[in-house]
Structure formats: structure tokens, C-alpha cells
Amino acid sequence: METPIKREIIDKLIADLGINDFAKATIREVKQVAAKAEKESGVEFIKMEMGIPGLPAAQVGVDAQIKALQAGIAHSYPDIQGAPQLKQEASRFVKAFIGLDVAPECCVPVTGSMQGTFASFLTCSQADKRRDTVLFIDPGFPVQKMQLQVMGVKYETFDVYDFRGEKLGPKLESYLKNGNICAIVYSNPNNPSWICLNEQELQAIGQLATKYDAIVMEDLAYFAMDFRQNLSVPFQPPYQPTVGRYTDNCMLLISGSKAFSYAGERIGVVCISDKLFHRHYDDLAARYEGLPFGLVFSTRMLYALSSGTSHSAQFALAAMLKAATDGEYDFRKEVSVYGERAHKLKEIFCRHGFHIVYDKDLDVPVADGFYFTIGYKKMTSGELAKELMYYGVSAICLITTGSHQEGLRVCTSFIEDHQYAQLEERMQLFEANNP
């Protein structure tokens, strides 16, 4: 059975890397196999494994950062609370696109949302000795669990696939009632499934977080990228959905990486609700000289981790947020290309016997966006991922994201126009070889 890349090449590379179960191969391992196989075979790979922005960085940010550097900003340490103009613009941005009031004081820049989640996990897990476990509404970003592994914090997880709508509240409560959950984590839109929790679901999460005194960490890495509705008009609904309408126990993680394609400069902002920011926890107060939650987060956790956030990158993010809030820069229009790519790719896969795994938000088809999920007949995740490698297509298994479904996560960021025809041809062959 002929395949675009000889099976022996892929099998040897997988063996050389010591990957026993391809279902559990990490993103970087899949990427490595693809890069080496491409070099060895001379066949171009259609790379769908890495969630890296595939667009130029927002020019308004680049210009502001260069200007700040030329003005000499690099010689001085940033304020641990963040540059005043970034705090101000983050507060305005949240009001303009989420419709929430968060004071500038409570908006704290971080070295990308990765550092934001790390510092948030540290703060949440130390706030109350009785609450030592983080709860993930999965599937999710695998590295967040690695962060907890690094800091020795326990976590629980469930796959939201069978618990949408009115089933979500009771499922969440079954964990929260044990009294050990300090934080609830999810991304919205979701990496990897691109499902979007609706208002009813967010309300259930928010009310239960208040009832059981857990903190919700809402990861908005793909901010306003639900392309089914226009979320890009500042100060006008519809707004980016958020749990922040339903609880004061929340931290919103807003990243510059995807919405502004500013991944390389590692810049984001954590917006902590005013009430949570100023709240005193006995265990934090005892450990950190009586400081409230928000100041423990910034003056202890962030200070210990990196002594602040890249000074010039703060000016970049401030300029991007300001331009968006002032209506001068439609960041959503720039990234809508991801949705267009997803639409074309899904159409090719589905025509050749594949199905979308996470296909609906309750009764509405999921949006086309940065990611989507595919399965094929009775194949397991590992079988499908490995089989597709023979056809020069790389993607990661859903199992690595905490999903219990058989299938793969596909990322649209690196797809080039000439690759649709390649994918069509290869999937035609794939279907013929795998009836």
C-alpha cells in the first residue's frame, strides 16, 4: 500500500526518539518526527501540530516597542505592578470588549499567559490550606498540568464532552462539594476543541465558584475568536463571554500571543476582579506579611519568578490594546483568516471519511477557528496520528489534552494556500487505503 512517505522512515524516526505510544507523543516530539521525515523523504509536511501564530505581529505593537527601546526603556527595571499606561489600557480593553469593570490597579502584566497561570496557580493553591487541588474543565492546554507537576500541586480533571449545558453544574459540584478545590481552569474558546462555553454554562461555573469559594482562572488566549458573532466593536455588545459576570472569584488571563500575533515577546495581562484582588486570606496573610491576594500575586509570586515583565513589551501591548479599544485596529479581522482556513480544512477531511469530534456547542455547530478536532472511523488517536504521518500530515492526539475522545487536534496556523490541494490529494489516498 503506497503512501507519500515510506512507512519505514516514520517508524524508524519514532523508534529513534523512544516514543513507545504515539498517542502520548508530545507536540514537540510530533514536530521533530515531521521535520526529520520531511528532510529525509523530500516530501513537504502539512504541519498542524503546533499552536503558533502564523501571521505577522501587529505593527502598532512593534512600532510602540521600538519607540520605547529607542527612548532608553531597556536600562530600567519595570515596576512589578506593571507600566501605568498598560494597566490603564488593559482596564479599558476589558470594559470595551468584555463589558466588565476591572480597575487598572487589578490588571497586572505577565511574561505571557504561561507565567500568568504559573503565578495564579501558586497564589490560588496557597490561599487556603484546606483547598490544595486545581480542577480542570478539559480538554485543555497540557502545559498547565505540567506547571502543577513542577510545583507539586494536585489536580482533578474531567472531559466536558458529555457534560455540556445543564449537566455541567452538577458535574462541577460533584468535585467542589469535597471542599478541596482552590481553582477551576478552562479556556474559552477552548484549546484544543474550539468549543465555547455559553452564558448558561458560565453562570453555573460562576455561581458554584462563589458557593464553594473556589477561584476561576479563565484563560482567554483566543480572545474574541468565536467567529460566529462579531465581538470586535468596542463598547458594544455582543461581548466576549465571561464568568466574570457571575462571580467575583475570578482571574481573566489575556494574552498578546494569538489575538495580536505577539507570541515571541511573551506578553500578557492577568485581570483580577477588584474584590478578589483586595481580599485577605488568612493563610496568605500569615505567609506574606498580611498582604491581600492581588499583592501576593504581583509583589511575591511574579517578583520571585522574573522580577517583572519585559519593559518594552509592556509598551507594545499597551499600544495594541489602546488601538483596539479606540476602534483604530480591528485585531479580530486580522485573525479571522484562521476561521477561513478551518472551514476549508474541515471540508476536505469530512469529504474523505473523517468526522469532527467536538462538533457542537449544545445544538450549534462549533465555530471555525484556530483549532478543530478530527476522528476517523474506528481508529484510535494513536493509530490515526501515526497513520497520517505516512501521508505527510502531523497533528497531536486529544488524549494529551485531557480528552477521553479518540481523535486529533488540528491547528490551522501554518497552513499555506498551496497545501489545500496537497491535503485533498493525500486524504483521497488515505481514504482509499483505509476503507
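The above is record 1. Record 2 follows with the same two-line structure.
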Amino acid sequence: MSDDARARYFPWLRFLIPAAAAAVLLLSAGFAAPPAPAPAGQAQIERFDVKKGQVTDRIPITAEMQQELRKLAQSASGSAGTFRIDPPDGTVLHFPLQPAVEIRQRGFFALAAEAYLFLPADREPYILFFSEENEPRLFGLKHPVNRLLALCGWEEG
């Protein structure tokens, strides 16, 4: 390239390269940003990907979802002492129970205010409840989770 051509294009290159780099950074930051939270005061389900170590989705809870969450809560089947609250893979769904749901099991009674539904890749789903007094209790489930996942748009689990 001749000196004249270099002199004509060099100022543009000094401007375009940083501008292109800034645009790429802004776009990648926008795609990497966590999902936007639901409006204040609106109950939502959070989907946590264990492998990624982050919340990957948040959606508002509909009345139909709340009804399905109640069915799951009422299908809790005995203490699940062998399950892990830190699974190596899978998905964990966090949801509030509004209003609180009665959990009645042998030797346990509580009003559950929130729950974590564990969907490990190689095991049956299980659920962790927190009472209004913040007491945790882990249970297996009798009710299938497929309907809730379909309502959320997460059929793959």
C-alpha cells in the first residue's frame, strides 16, 4: 500500500477498530446478562442451571402454575434424607407458595412459604420446603412434575 493510501485510511482504522471492539463487548454483555427480574411484588419461578451455576430464567407464576405447585406440595412423600441439596447436575426451580401451603407428614407439620424443586439428570425429582419459620425439610414426590414444566415452557426439564 502506498503512503498516500495509508494516510487516507489510517485515521479511519484507528476509529473503526475500537468502535467495533466496543460494539462487540456491548452485544456480548447484553446476551450474557441474567434474565430481567419480574415486576416488584409479582411472584415468580426461578430456574437455576446447576452446571452453569446461575439463574437462567425467571417467569411470573400464573394461577394455573400455582395450582400445580400446590399439587406438588401436597404430594410430598416422606422425608427424603438421602437426597442432596447440592446436586452435581440438573435444574433447580425456586418458587414462592402464596398463600403458604400446609405440609402434613408423619412427624412434621408446617406451612410452607417457599420451595425448591430439584430436577437432577439421573434421579427422580424431589422438593425442599421452607416453612414460614424458615425450617427446611426435604421430601420425595408422588405427583409428576411434567405438567408444571409444560406450563412454564420448560418441557425438557
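Strands lie at 44-49, 54-60, 76-79, 91-105, 108-119, 126-131, 136-141.
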